[in-house]
Amino acid sequence: MSQGPSYEELAALVAVQARVIDELRAEVAELRAGNAELKRRLRMDSTNSRTSGSARSTTRSASTSKPSTGWP
Fold first, then answer.
1. 64-67: long-range pairs with CB below 8 Å, 24+
2. What are the residues whose beta carbons fall under 8 Å from the beta carbon of 56, sequence distance 6 or more?
3. What are phi and psi of 24, to 5 degrees?
4. What is the residue-wise DSSP string for 22-56?
5. DSSP 57-68
6. Which of 1, 4, 68, 70 is the most exposed place for a label (fewest CB within 10 A)?
């Protein structure tokens, strides 16, 4: 019958896992901060106002118009 890992092996594994957890916590904190910044910018973006698009501009530029499908 094979013996399981030793106490030392398990302790080393726990230490590695603790380092990975610390790294992931730091990454989550960075991502949350970046997400908060993006949400702040989105709130400031005037193109995201509650005014409908047709009220902002009554004509579409050639670059934003849809191509014709050939259907009436």
1. none
2. 49
3. -65, -35
4. HHHHHHHHHHHHHHHHHHHHHHH-GGGSSS-HHHH
5. -SS--TTTSPPP
6. 1
